[in-house]
Design brief:
It is a single chain. The protein is an alpha/beta fold. The chain has one domain. 38% of the residues lie in helices and 20% in strands. The chain has seven helices and seven strands, in the order E-H-E-E-E-H-H-H-H-H-E-H-E-E. The protein has helices spanning 30-38, 91-103, 110-137, 152-160, 162-173, 176-190, 215-228, and strands spanning 4-9, 49-53, 66-70, 75-82, 198-204, 233-244, 249-256. The chain has a seven-stranded mixed β-sheet, sandwiched between helices. Helix 2 packs parallel to helix 7 (215-228), helix 3 packs antiparallel against helix 6 and helix 4 packs across helix 5 (162-173). The protein is globular.
Length: 260
């Protein structure tokens, strides 16, 4: 069952990772994270989400590829994996939860989350200001520019999907309304007595491969569900169909999956 479908300007395939010559419109798993920035609702979550930042490495105590807070004050953390190979999207999440039990040091405080977000938001807005014309015309080599969005491979996904970034993402990030929504969401998060994240394993469909867990991934998925409760562990798949109309529109859709 499809959760949601959205139309996107097609990517500019001149911007490519020369180490990864996978054919098709989608080269990288990070595209799935990027699409969620454009359309938070495509995750299929029943409450409005405000995304905060995409950690660069995902290392402890900042696991995952995308952090956000919903309108009720729930913390959401997403780990994105390619569907090409059997995957283990919950490995870092399980490690963090086990450290919570043994060390009590996860997740970071709301103040630490807010400080990180504020710093990255300033950098993202600077990136938009400096690169707007180059992104509009696709006239320059890509500037990796740090910020709240994913920036792997010299920020390849932003430049490859530059029209989508300029039309759907940059106007939101630059707006006072986004900043107000994020501050309000963080205030609601701060009002909670305990921070128990919702964890999402997001499979970006590449090469039409069916999303599936590795053997270790399946075991960690079940272990994490038992540790934090099944209603806080979620699996989604997201893909671009690869069909481009004469108007150069790509179709992006998402759906729930067990990934098995």
């Amino acid at each position: 069952m499809t959760v949601a479908t959205r139309l996107s300007p097609a990517p500019d395939t001149r911007y490519t990772d020369l180490r990864n010559r996978r054919p098709g419109l989608v080269q990288m798993e990070e595209s799935g994270t990027f699409w969620l920035w454009a359309w938070p609702e495509i995750l299929g979550w029943p409450v409005e989400i405000t995304w905060l930042f995409s950690p660069v490495t995902g290392n402890y105590p900042w696991p995952g590829d995308l952090w956000g807070v919903d309108a009720s004050g729930e913390l959401l953390i997403v780990e994105t994996k390619s569907s090409v190979y059997p995957a283990d999207p919950f490995e870092d999440f399980l490690d963090c939860e086990q450290r919570r039990v043994s060390e009590g040091a996860f997740p970071p405080t709301v103040q630490a989350i807010r400080t990180r977000w504020e710093k990255l938001l300033h950098r993202e807005r600077r990136f938009i200001e400096v690169n707007r014309d180059a992104l509009r015309f696709g006239s320059a080599s890509r500037n990796p520019g740090p910020g709240v969005l994913p920036n792997s491979c010299k920020r390849l996904v932003t430049w490859r999907w530059r029209s989508l970034f300029l039309e759907c993402i940059a106007p939101v990030i630059a707006s006072p309304a986004y900043e107000h929504a994020a501050v309000s969401a963080l205030d609601r998060l701060n009002s909670r007595s305990n921070l128990f994240p919702h964890y999402f394993g997001l499979f970006t469909i590449l090469a039409s491969a069916r999303p599936r867990f590795s053997a270790a991934g399946k075991q960690r998925y079940e272990t994490l569900r038992a540790l934090v409760s099944p209603d806080r562990v979620h699996v989604r798949a997201i893909e671009c169909t690869g069909n481009v109309s004469p108007e150069q529109v790509a179709i992006v859709c998402s759906y729930p999956t067990l990934g098995a």
